[in-house]
Specification:
With about 900 residues, the protein is α/β, with parallel strands linked by helices. It has a 6-stranded parallel β-sheet with strand order 10-7-11-12-14-13, with helices on both faces.
Length: about 900
Amino acid sequence: MASGSDRNPIIIGGLPSQVPDFDPEETQEWLDSLDAAVDERGRERARYLMLRLIERAREKRVAVPEMRSTDYVNTIATKDEPFFPGNEEIERKVLNATRWNAAVMVSRAQRPGIGVGGHIATFASSASLYDVGFNHFFRGKDEGDGGDQIFFQGHASPGVYARAFLLDRLTEPQLDAFRQEKSKAPNGLSSYPHPRLMPDFWEFPTVSMGLGPLGAIYQARMNRYMEARGIADTSKSHVWAYLGDGEMDEPESLGQLSIAAREGLDNLTFVVNCNLQRLDGPVRGNGKIMQELESQFRGAGWNVIKLVWDRSWDPLLAQDRDGILVNKLNSTPDGQFQTYATETGAYIRDHFFGDDQRLRAMVENMTDDQILHLGRGGHDHKKIYAAYAAAKAHKGQPTVILAQTVKGWTLGPNFEGRNATHQMKKLTVADLKGFRDRLHLPIPDKDLEDGLPPYYHPGRDSEEIQYMHDRRKGLGGYVPTRVVRAKPLQLPDDKAYAGAKKGSGQQKIATTMAFVRVLKDLMRDKEIGKRFVPIAPDEYRTFGMDAFFPSAKIYNPLGQQYESVDRELLLAYKESPTGQMLHDGITEAGCTASLIAAGSAYATHGEPLIPVYVFYSMFGFQRTGDQFWQMADQLARGFVLGATAGRTTLTGEGLQHADGHSQLLASTNPACVAYDPAYGYEIAHIVKDGLRRMYGENAEDIFYYLTVYNEPIQHPAEPADADVEGILKGLHRIKTGEKGEHAAQILASGVAVPWAVEAQQILADEWNVKADVWSATSWNELRRDAVEVEEHNLLHPEEEQRVPYVTQKLQDAEGPKVAVSDWMRSVPDQIARWVPGTYQSLGADGFGFADTRGAARRFFHIDTQSIVLSVLTELAKEGKVDRSLLKQAIDRYQLLDVSAAEAGEAGGDA
């Protein structure tokens, strides 16, 4: 059995990048030999020789690294560091003021009577990483382009606010309104980066951990996509993502690294703040998170830059003749380094350097204080600058910078490196005094002893503030800043929707195909056609969108460097560097990230894109619901299509594919406008209005969710008196009952509308009931309208009381109302309290299963005959028909026998 160290290696191979060369002549001979082999015999021969040498080395038991990770030292050697162009003294003063104000802002927010808190330890560890970016790298938007896109780590937001305060972008009352968005409006500052809450400041929401790195990858890709298609010049834009080492445990953080490498996104840099701590403890107490991440990123094809130690280590590493210091760094686990961050210099001398005489000799001339201040690379401006410059200069690969820091750095011994530091929000007077002294700030003791600790500003005319303004002016403006420069689009007229309004004639098509036909016509439009961005997770053929392949083509920056296996087919798979379709593979998370990046391009780059994301509906809101909140928060716009919707339409697939609830999940997202249309002409009106609301004058920050089905049905032509307002608001009558003594109303949505129409006929022919059929295109919008009406009436009792739209529509409709859909009852039940008279719903509650459509609908009692029974039951409750009819109906239609139901329409993937 392998030992623990064998099973969990702390260091995984590597190159001796920091060990000094003590026989440079011999080394040069070996290098010259390799050069000669390359020059005289070629690279292939040299590669063969190297592999044979590695083989022999292993035979001789020479430890040959596997090259998945390198030594626990800086990737960039001291001799290779570029000139630092900034003024370190001034930048130190700027950073000290920023550190102070960030901590004080959070501490003041924790005062009695407020107690909203905040987090200060994350920014304390990453402050230098941000400062170098602000001073030397982050491009603003003043040049008219999108500048750089920066995904700030969510818990570091106090530091970004603190810097904005020094630059007069935020005021002291605003800092004091941190996390008090409503009670201190309009001064309230959001807890984390929230564009919806601060639409002129933040660009990207990141605090739902894991979504920042995922979003950054697809933002960098979207930049390349827009440039390749000639929509925007994004060549100067660089995407920076600031992440935590603990955050990298989220599947979304590492799940899409390969696409960034595969497409050579050298416009992307991850900066992982490796303070070695999660929220409550070490990330890898027994291991080394930087080595682990290096291995993962390197294996995925990224360029990796490790920034481990500050300049105080350089003299020690330069005298490490035997590599004993590097070996000690390699073999010390993170949990121990976290402890060193909290201990004295004497402790470090005894426990780190003390177990080897050669190590003790290295520091024998150093004081305990000097040993204590052997620092981490993520706090050294020069080292950080070198890493950033190298990342920007690197071509052909995305870059990750792994920067070691100390959580709570400079906040004092009660905070630095402590497991509980993430939850510590308030500084005591002693903490404040020690913090002030550490930062060399001219704040008197009395200002810290009485009342709330003060903010610090060196003065608008001070050297450091002028330096900050000059640096931002030279880099194109202040960041973060969100700017909307996009103009309303010239939208198509009614001609673009004429095909859908004609219906399908005798042909049966699914609503998925009806939508695809609308989309195809819109993509032909000369004004907006090129702005559509179709997105699908490897299912274009399933959704009937393979017809787009020959004309729109699939985006691939490398084009198609092979002969497609289906090249002889009319609808052959076709890739192109200028392709319009995004075919992201089997990744709903990646597709949703593409959706968000495209949907916010109107703000990011001033050029609107119209994303259309089509997916198996079960794998939408349920699987990536957190990203749809991210989409709402980022104010992204576009169309989301839950294809193969419904609990009973996807025959044969079974439980995991049977969506009977995504409409309910969609209702929880305030930015989501959700529809469940039945016919093509409804889809046409919904899409047209969606384009108007999202891309016309006074555009709204919303997105549309349409559930469409794969069951073929006949689509009627749009009637001359179509109730367009009702279609858009959520309810319109599509067929009035023509005969029968007793009145009733059937409300249906989506694929259930044809069942309702059939039930109407049976009720008239067999039961003397005259039923009207209504298409409920949006249960969600009906409820949303009713809630808004109730709130208005609550707060304006002196005014004439408003009436919800659904109440208005059904006020004069006679008889009981029965609602039916292929969703769980909770979906139509959303409007129950506002429906006048008797209201009953039918729905597919419970798990889905594999069977025929007819059997499934009979099981859930939502089929045509079950609708008939439900209407009769409600009429019996009102005394309109005799209850004996109910048993007659059950027996006549064999409603207790699932196998007695007709199988129903078969097939129909699209």
